[in-house]
Amino acid sequence: MKRRDFLNYIFKGTIFAWFLGIIGSILSFIKLPKIEREEFEKEIEIKGANELAPWEYKFIPHLKEPLFFIKTETGFLAISAVCTHMKCILEYKKEERMINCPCHGALFDLNGNPLKGPPSFPLKRYEIEKRGDKFYVIL
To answer: Entry's PROSITE patterns (predicted)?
Structure first.
């Protein structure tokens, strides 16, 4: 290979790399709308809610933030199943009527308030709507 051909390849390669950098920079400024699941799912129907006995629950894992749907003696609760400390998935303790974090031993009451452990923020609660004999959690 001649020296002139080698320098020609190096020059063309440099121009090509520079051109790709310019195109990449331009494309990074074009923001496509970010579509999240939340934009489509504003509520979720809780199937079988009427069959729950008091203090039994359903764990709803397939949402962006999993939740517990708990039947109380007077109604229902929908509360986040994600710890506010380190985002661990929580466990509902039916006998104690408490929500436990297995990661750091945190305890929450059924209103979502932290009782023990490192979390200092309450769990998110969700609104519940009854339409006919169906229950919906508003996300």
So the answer is: RIESKE (PS51296)
